[in-house]
Amino acid sequence: MAAILNNLLPGDVSTYGEVAIEAGFPGRSRSVGAFLKKSEGYPWWRVVNHKGRLVPGKELLQSRLLKSEGVSTISGHVVGF
C-alpha cells in the first residue's frame, strides 16, 4: 500500500477504494483510511472518499494542501470528482 500512496504525484487525487484495489485488497477502503490515520510520511491529503469528500475534521488542511497542488475544492469536496 505504501508504494501506491507514494506514487500519487502532486495534483493526483485517488479514493480509498482505488488505493485498496491497487494494493491488492479490494473492498478494504476502510483499511486504507486506518493506515493513513496512524502512519506518517504518506500523502494522505491526496486520498478522498468515493464521492470526493475530504477527511472529516481535516477539511481545511486537506483543502489547503490540495489547492497548493492545483486541485480545486468546495464545501469539503474535490471539484468535479
What does this structure look like?
The protein has 81 residues and is α+β, with helices and mostly antiparallel strands. The protein has a single domain (2-78), classed as Arc Repressor Mutant, subunit A (Orthogonal Bundle). It contains 4 helices and 4 strands. The protein has a two-stranded parallel sheet. It has a two-stranded antiparallel ribbon with strand order 3-4. Helix 2 (16-22) crosses helix 3. The model has no long low-confidence stretch (mean pLDDT 96).
Total count of strands: 4
Q: What is the number of independent domains?
A: 1
Q: Could you give the order of strands across the largest sheet?
A: 1-2
For the termini, the CA-CA separation is: 23 Å
CATH class: Mainly Alpha
Helix/strand-derived class?
Answer: alpha+beta
Q: Write the CATH homologous superfamily.
A: Winged helix-like DNA-binding domain superfamily/Winged helix DNA-binding domain
Radius of gyration: 12 Å
- Can you tell me the CATH topology? Arc Repressor Mutant, subunit A
> How do the SSEs run, as a string of H and E?
HEHHEHEE
Strand content: 5-15%
- Low-pLDDT segments: none
Helix content: 25-40%
Largest sheet: 2 strands, parallel
- The global form is globular
The chain-level mean pLDDT equals: 96
Count of helical segments?
4
Itemize the secondary structure elements and their pairings.
Elements: H1 2-6, E1 14-15, H2 16-22, H3 29-38, E2 47-48, H4 59-68, E3 73-74, E4 77-78
Parallel strand pairs: 1-2
Antiparallel strand pairs: 3-4
Helix pairs in contact: 2-3
